[in-house]
Amino acid sequence: MRNKPVSPVLVVIAHGSRDPRHAATVHALVRRVRSLRPDVRVETGFLDFNIPSVHGVLESLAAQGVRDVVALPLLLTRAFHAKADIPAVLASAPARLRIRQAEVLGPSPLLLAALERRLYEAGLTPADKSSTGVVLASAGSTDSEAIAVIADIAREWRHTGWCAVRPAFASASLPRTEDAVRELRALGCARVAVAPYVLAPGFLPDRIARGAAQADVLADVLGPAPEVARVLLERYDAARTPLRAAVGA
What is the pLDDT of residue 80? Predict the structure, then answer.
């Protein structure tokens, strides 16, 4: 009787932060992922500020005899960290590991569903959509591809019934959250809501919150929303399929 193939270990790679809320939120999301897929071993590594480091997690897995790993960037866009930092860390991993880097989480219809979940939890209802303008507030980036993705998401989200949707950025790019709030007021939206398109609390999400001072509604960060956990597993499954095919070839 042949043994059932062991699923690749999922290593979730988070940025890390001096703010303890960041790591706590990442761990809450990973716990939700584990509850959805108890057959998959899930580990967490941080690029900076928090432990364990990504390199330390990979070394530990290699020492335990693990061979196959899917490394999943806990990022919403393909910016510098996904294109440079994470590939560099993975390139320095122990040679015995077969690692495949999964795609970042966004864009995804599930993330739009998570954004709406957070807005409804903050007090809006589906009946409020047509009279409410939404600021899609992201951390910001100097990467033009990442900025374009946020703009595309805002346009797509507008077509689901909101009065208007405008992108905003906490750093590197413009407009800022407060400017987008003023623009939506000028457009005549009866109320304005700010939806942080960020995964965990920290310095930039706090800046978004300050920029939302004149908005009517401020949603929470995406955090461990069930839709986020589902996207994470979708990316894992997509990445592990070619890896398993190569192993069985």
Answer: 79
What single-letter DSSP state applies at residue 92?
T
Place of tokens 């407060």: 178
Q: Which of 185-220 are b and which e, b meaning 16 or more Cβ less than 10 Å from the residue's Cβ? A: beeebebbbbbbbbbbbbebbebbbebbeebbbbbb
Q: Residue 208: CB partners within 8 Å, gap ≥ 6?
A: 137, 168, 170, 177, 194, 196, 198
Whether pTM > 0.85 for this model: the answer is: yes
Question: How far is C-alpha 187 from the chain's CA centre?
Answer: 30
What are the C-alpha distances in Å from 212 to residues 23, 61, 221? Answer: 24, 43, 13
Q: Could you tell me the fold of the domain covering 109-218?
A: Rossmann fold (3.40.50)
Residue 175: asked if its preceding bond is cis (omega within 30°), the reply is yes
Any idea which fold 9-106+225-248 has?
Answer: Rossmann fold (3.40.50)
